[in-house]
Amino acid sequence: MSTIVFFHAHPDDEALSTAGTMALLSESGNRVILVVATRGEEGEPVPGVLKEGELLEERRTEELIKSADLLGVARVEFLNYRDSGMTGSPSTSNPECFWQANVEKASLRLADLLCEETVDLLVIYDPNGGYGHPDHIQVHRVGTFWADQIGLKNIRWTTLNRDSIKKTIELAMETAPDEGLAGIGDDLEERRQRVEEESFGSAESEITHAIDISDFIEKKREAISTHRSQIGEDSFFLQIPNDQFVNVFGTEWFINPKETRKENEPFKSNLFN
Ligand SMILES: [Zn+2]
Fold it and tell me: How far away, in angstroms, is 10 Cα from ligand 1 center?
């Protein structure tokens, strides 16, 4: 049995990016720990979803715990920084927010939380945090610093496969622009342009690991749907038909920063290798 720490920025990131891998690892007898830096105070709640007087961070905490439960997570912890919000918003200058945190101090907070654990593998975001969100970038920095301090060598970066997403969108644009990728037909061109920007995910050539999570695809979707304050009933994630959902989300992509994959060399299918 190994202990794997998944370090995420906000409630829902675990479901959207690594849910399948978490479920796979916990089901195969490993100890999966989820640490989340913030409670997602700056998220945009789905209209009407909060009860009177209910705070978004309270709801998002509950949602995260439900999602973690579904995925077989053994332990959930919050670093309790404030959500920094998107780049350019005033919330990024709040002294309590994660983006403003001193990397060394935040890493000490993480070290305190996990002092009793023997961690075999740490999962954080790639250096750009997948798509440039300040809290995701900070997870990368703090996680890297902490691993360095404790001498943990096994790190994987969760990332988006830019080339694969581009291919999926282009195929949808060609074959069935109206019915493909349910509900997002109109946005396809815009989405394709966004994916083309260098800052979005990683090029396939940089990716070392492809984890097939098709056996856990229903769990992934269920985990996503626990985050109802962020993901409405009519959202792409919940509307897309099952067969397309598995095409788009059935593989989770990771990078071992100490490795390069040679051209034509297959991806590794086991996160530990
Ligand atoms: Zn996030």
Answer: 5
pLDDT tens column, 179-190: 555 455 556 777
CA of 174 to the centre of ligand 1 (A): 31
Q: Are 158 and 18 in contact (CB under 8 A)?
A: yes
Give distance in angstroms: CA of 264 to centre of ligand 1. 32
CA dihedral 57, 63, 67, 69 (to 10 degrees): 100
Tell me phi and psi for residue 171, to 5 degrees. Answer: -65, -45
C-alpha 122 to ligand 1 mean position (Å) = 17
For each of the domains in the chain, give its residue range(s) and CATH number, in order of start: 3-160+202-255 (3.40.50.10320), 162-200 (no CATH)
The pTM score is 0.94
Query: pLDDT at position 183, please?
Result: 52
> Ligand 1 centroid to 118 CA: how many Å?
26
Tell me the average pLDDT of the chain.
93
Cα 80 to middle of ligand 1, angstroms: 14
